[in-house]
Amino acid sequence: MKLIFSGCDCAFLRKICGRVACASDEIKFYDEPMQLVSDLIDEENSNSGERCALILDHFLYGRYKRCLYRLLSSAGLRIPLIFYNAPDIEPSCRFLRWLSENEIEYECMDFDPFIPLFEKIDMALADFDSCPADAACPPEQCFVPKLPPSMAALYAFLSENRNREISIEEIAVTLNISSKRRIQRNNLTYAYIARLRKCLESNSSVRIIRSKKNFYRLVLD
Fold it and tell me: What would the pLDDT profile of 75-85 be if each residue is shown by its tens digit?
């Protein structure tokens, strides 16, 4: 099985990994959400056929849960997502929440092979006094709160690529805007950018600038 861990505190993730991984498991660690999803889709296209599970920090990924399920489903993937650090889940019902949520999101009931993994992770988390504090997540990686779902994927993409200029064409692909007419496609993309700017108005430390015609950057002040 392939186990993919992603969260704010890599040391904590390695402790959990040490408790749940078998010698034959392939292990990966990520701290970039969009790179993680991109790699998953690329690997699925290569059709390795290996079972996979994602163990994710709710603090880092919670607001993007629906987006992750949607992206994976659209790629034909039914990879279980296991969220720790979730403030709305009591430890006593954590395991059942993981199982039911994956079955509901993927509209299927074939996650029985993952039950032993769910149980091992649940037991490993219970053996630690606490999960990493929110403060463990570096400020530059923290997502802007209260973004509507339609804006989440765009903000995450801009955030992960904030060190370079991003073309309008790249943004259109990220948003899955597939109009054959370039003018219409660009206009729809401009509208999404304008909506995201509106959402970010209350956060003076985050701005989207147009660096040159049809190129944008996310700036963290």
Answer: 777 889 998 88
Instruction: State how far the Cα of 92 lies from the Cα of 97, in Å rounded to an integer.
Output: 10
Task: Check if the beta carbon of residue 152 is closer than 8 Å to that of residue 63.
Answer: yes
How do residues 133-159 score in pLDDT, each as one tens digit?
444 444 444 444 456 666 777 887 887
Distance CA 213, CA 169 (A): 12
Q: How far apart are CA 208 and CA 34, in angstroms?
A: 18
- Integer distance in angstroms from the first to the last C-alpha of the chain? 41
DSSP character at residue 132: P
**CA gap 199, 147 in Å, rounded:** 7
Place of tokens 């991984």: 21
d(CA 77, CA 169): 26
